[in-house]
Design goal:
Blueprint: H1 28-31, H2 35-62, H3 67-85, H4 87-100, H5 106-126, E1 140-143, H6 146-154, E2 157-161, H7 170-175, E3 182-184, H8 191-203, E4 207-209, H9 216-224, E5 228-232, E6 235-237, E7 240-243, H10 255-266, E8 269-277, E9 283-287, H11 303-320
Parallel strand pairs: 1-9, 2-5, 2-8, 3-4, 3-5
Antiparallel strand pairs: 6-7, 8-9
């Protein structure tokens, strides 16, 4: 079998369609309906609002800090909090490190874990200052990103990012090459965190697609009109890594299958990119070679090969930078 020949179709786990449902707002009538209704009312209006206040105070309070100080504070908080208050996730991260980096001795594996804790913490606090990069572009080093802009001028593009470094720099980076994509957006849990995330990303120039199946038709329409859609294919869900595959059996449950199907339906070129933290609050961003799916009379027959084509571009980058990978604290899929 040559590289251009699709392999025999295999049965692989399929992606299940899902719809996003926002949290309901309990009413006073709910509070009077019984214990369950009262607890939901109290949680929404009292407990959650105390946390909302704390998140808002933290977000706006850290805006007062210099950028590097804000990032360093996050690193210290991450190293302190993750091992102590996220024990299950920390255990998963250590197990994933042992599986993916058996070449490291115990001390090296623990050092990688601790550096990832710092990275996780930086991500949280840097949300307060990430948009300052629009006026401090000297903190961003771009390598080969122009190719995405060139491809976008010629037709539809699916930009595939990676959860490395701080991917929230993406809108600022893409604006520098005159690309403003639409992105699938799943709000984080918590009303204050969701409000903060939407506010920061909107100010950065990102345009949102609805999460879940409701976003598919708008994405297809945008791509068929020659537009740009952004998504991520490295992901964790329910404590398990969906992508990259890391030598596990390929499946359709994650965004690899979605990206390929969108590309096949619209003729879009897939443009992977990633950013790495170099030091403190500074980043180096690189574009990989654009992926144009091979012509096929039966695209469905090539689904597995197409997913592997995209996976094999992304996986080595993620594997080489596990210390900066957001989903390191998820478990590998069973073999």
């Amino acid at each position: 079998m040559t590289a251009e020949e699709p392999r025999q179709t295999e049965k692989i786990a399929k992606r299940k369609a899902w719809s996003f449902t926002s949290e309901g707002r309990p009413t006073f009538a709910d509070a009077l309906s019984g214990r369950e209704g009262f607890n939901a009312f109290r949680r929404y209006w009292v407990t959650d609002n105390l946390w909302n206040l704390a998140h808002l105070a933290g977000h706006f309070g850290m805006k007062l800090l210099p950028m590097d100080a804000c990032s360093s504070l996050g690193a210290a908080l991450g190293l302190f909090a993750v091992p102590r208050f996220h024990k299950v996730a920390s255990q998963r991260a250590r197990e994933t490190i042992r599986a993916l980096r058996p070449d490291l001795d115990a001390a090296g594996q623990e050092a990688l874990f601790r550096e990832n804790c710092r990275s996780q913490g930086r991500l949280m606090t840097e949300f307060s200052v990430v948009n300052r990069l629009q006026n401090n572009r000297d903190r961003l080093t771009l390598n080969g990103l122009d190719i995405i802009g060139e491809v976008a001028k010629a037709g539809p593009v699916i930009i595939v990012g990676m959860h490395l470094g701080n991917w929230e720099v993406g809108p600022t980076v893409l604006q520098s090459i005159n690309v403003r994509p639409y992105a699938f957006y799943l709000p984080p849990k918590g009303r204050a965190k969701a409000w903060i995330a939407e506010r920061v990303r909107s100010k950065a120039g990102l345009r949102f697609l609805p999460p879940g199946m409701e976003g598919i038709r708008p994405a297809i329409k945008i791509l068929k009109s020659g537009g740009v859609v952004s998504m991520f294919c490295d992901e964790g869900f329910g404590g398990t890594i969906r992508g990259p595959f890391f030598d596990r059996k390929p499946h359709q449950e994650g965004n690899f299958a979605l990206a390929i199907r969108l590309a096949r339906m619209t003729g879009a070129t897939i443009c992977p990119w990633y950013g790495l933290r170099t030091k403190g609050f500074r980043f180096e961003c690189r574009a990989l070679e654009p992926i144009r799916l091979p012509a096929s009379d039966d695209p469905n027959a090539r689904l597995l090969d197409d997913m592997l084509l995209l996976n094999n571009a992304i996986e080595p980058i993620v594997h080489a930078h596990l210390d900066q990978w957001y989903f390191l604290d998820n478990a590998l899929r069973p073999e």
